[in-house]
Amino acid sequence: MFYLEIGDRVMYRTLLKKYLVKYADRLIITVTSDEDFEGQPFYQEFQEDIITVKKVREWPGTIRSGDRASSYYFPYNMKVAEYLKRYNCFYRAVSNDTYTWMESLDSIEADLAFMNGKEEILYTITHERETRIISKALTQELRQNGYEVYSHR
């Protein structure tokens, strides 16, 4: 496993469209029960493409105690990559006067996992501010193209 630091939105967008489209065929978006994913623009745009929805306690990078989360499985293709470009990054810090939290997509906390079949390629853990790469081939290609990839944090 490797950790990925994405320097800017150009690198993020290139990752989505050039590399992840090459290595991944599915996208899993996992949200906890207190998040309204079905009210999200992403869900509205791609609800017809959903492969399946599973109630889970474990997903890439996370083991949850308590209530189950929902994992939504979508095909990953250029149409999805183009849509995800609008966010400029996988997650971002948001704060008010007293608290800072992490969010992704449109103001919810969601973890994204890019898969090839059942093989994990890359996933995010939003609340940890982490993007992890599992694929050695993707890791090598990203390093060769100027991405910051680390073996530990």
Architecture overview:
It contains four helices and twelve strands; from the N terminus they run βαβαββββαβββββαβ. It is an alpha+beta fold. The strands form three sheets. An eight-stranded antiparallel beta sheet has the order 3-6-2-9-10-11-1-12, with helices on one face. It has a two-stranded antiparallel ribbon with strand order 4-5. Helix 1 runs antiparallel to helix 3 (78-84). It is globular and about 40 Å long. The N and C termini lie close together (11 Å). The mean pLDDT is 90.
Q: Which properties best describe this structure?
A:
153 residues, alpha+beta, eight-stranded antiparallel sheet, two-stranded antiparallel ribbon, 4 helices, globular
Residue stretches low in confidence (pLDDT < 50, at least 5 long) are: none
Spatial sequence of strands, sheet with the most strands: 3-6-2-9-10-11-1-12
| Strand-residue proportion | 35-45%
Structural class: alpha+beta
Give a count of the beta strands, DSSP E runs of length 2 or more: 12
What number is the mean pLDDT? 90
